[in-house]
Amino acid sequence: MERAARGRRGGAGVQPLLRGCAPRGGVARSRQVTRGRRRVRVGRRHMHRRRVARALTRDRLPYRDTAIGLRGPAVADVARAFGQLWKRCGAALPVGERTRPEEIGPAGEEGARVVIQEPGRMRIARMLQLVAAGARERLWIADAYFMAGPTLNQALMSAARDRVDVRVLLPATNDVPLA
To answer: Could you tell me which of 137, 132, 141, 144 has the C-alpha nearest to residue 168?
Structure first.
């Protein structure tokens, strides 16, 4: 059964990505985005029933993932980007499901920047290059699909030569084969 149809029956909003923008025939692989009026949670699940059932019989699960929670003005940026990508993939979000500015709560004490990656763009790679150039003490990156081109490799090596603690956490295997 098609993954998008299963998600819709389960009450989830599922929108297939444009062909060529995502692995495995164009459906976003189980990306979870939960939107509330005042906060956003973003995370990924890369699991299949058989893998999870097998993993649960072991001492630990075979994957590592990260999820975040945002409050404050950054929610508007994430909500706007989600709406734009949803529209690009099919239809606009219904008006009642769009986050209105007056519904967003106040910011916390820490600042945040939101960098939205879109199909065919290199925003995350450029952001990492900029962060690597400005890092003074520590630069830790965790990414299941990390692919550093020559420019980002050079920026990371340069930061390490400047005695910045550079670490990249990657999975042992990946579900997206390189061509």
So the answer is: 141
